[in-house]
């Protein structure tokens, strides 16, 4: 059964000045969201979520990826990426997690932008107009702190108690005037091999 989509919401934020200083390159943040009926709503505790995951995940993954590519001008333009889900108050956080933490959903986006990093994420529960927070990281380099970004927005009428908001996020550019270095420098200073995770 395909997901019942009530609305699509698109968000764009362009930062031209940061810290009182003009950005050499504007930071562009994008999000695209689908507001869907929670497929497990009203059914009590559902033990097996897999049928709905397999039915809805690919549809939402393809739809939101295609909309994101249209917004940004293509996967090659996207530098950082992430995902999020907010389930309404009658749902479980597991319902939000189920629809974004599956390769049936995420691989559409990952493949479209030719990414190597994992998709950073949030999964929360809230009422209509709840803050939607989409964390981002560089699609190729998880240690590139210039692209540790967060998109924040809200949808005034979503999620309703029986809905889930499913979101993809992206950036073109990193933080203007970023100057805290990358993760690898810290690893070296702490005596770790910068090519391996810290123990």
Keyword list:
199 residues; 60s Ribosomal Protein L30, Chain: A; seven-stranded mixed sheet; 7 strands
Tell me the CATH architecture.
2-Layer Sandwich
Full CATH superfamily name = BB2672
User: Sheet bearing the most strands, described?
Assistant: 7 strands, mixed
Please tell me the overall pLDDT.
95
Counted beta strands: 7
Count of discrete structural domains: 1
Strand content: 25-35%
Helical segment tally? 4
Unreliable stretches: none
- Separation of termini? 44 Å
CATH structural class:
Alpha Beta
**CATH topology tier name:** 60s Ribosomal Protein L30, Chain: A
Structural class call reads alpha+beta
* Assembly state of the chains shown: single chain
Characterization of the model:
By secondary structure, the protein is α+β, with helices and mostly antiparallel strands. It has a single domain, classed as 2-Layer Sandwich (60s Ribosomal Protein L30, Chain: A). It has four helices and seven strands; from the N terminus they run ββαβααββββα. The chain starts with a strand and ends in a 10-residue tail after the last helix. The model has no long low-confidence stretch (mean pLDDT 95).
């Amino acid at each position: 059964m395909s997901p019942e989509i009530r609305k699509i919401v698109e968000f764009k934020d362009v930062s031209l000045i940061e810290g009182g200083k003009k950005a050499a390159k504007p930071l562009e943040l994008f999000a695209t969201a689908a507001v869907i009926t929670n497929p497990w709503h009203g059914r009590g505790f559902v033990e097996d979520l897999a049928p709905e995951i397999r039915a809805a995940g690919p549809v939402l993954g393809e739809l939101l990826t295609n909309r994101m590519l249209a917004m940004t001008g293509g996967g090659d333009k996207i530098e950082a990426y992430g995902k999020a889900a907010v389930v309404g108050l009658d749902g479980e956080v597991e319902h939000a997690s189920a629809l974004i933490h599956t390769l049936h959903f995420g691989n559409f986006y990952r493949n479209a932008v030719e990414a190597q990093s994992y998709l950073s994420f949030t999964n929360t529960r809230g009422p209509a107009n709840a803050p939607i927070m989409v964390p981002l990281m560089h699609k190729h380099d998880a240690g590139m702190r210039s692209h540790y970004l967060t998109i924040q927005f809200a949808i005034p009428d979503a999620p309703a108690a029986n809905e889930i908001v499913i979101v993809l996020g992206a950036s073109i550019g990193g933080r203007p005037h970023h100057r805290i270095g990358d993760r690898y420098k810290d690893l070296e200073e702490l005596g770790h091999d910068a090519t391996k995770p810290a123990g």
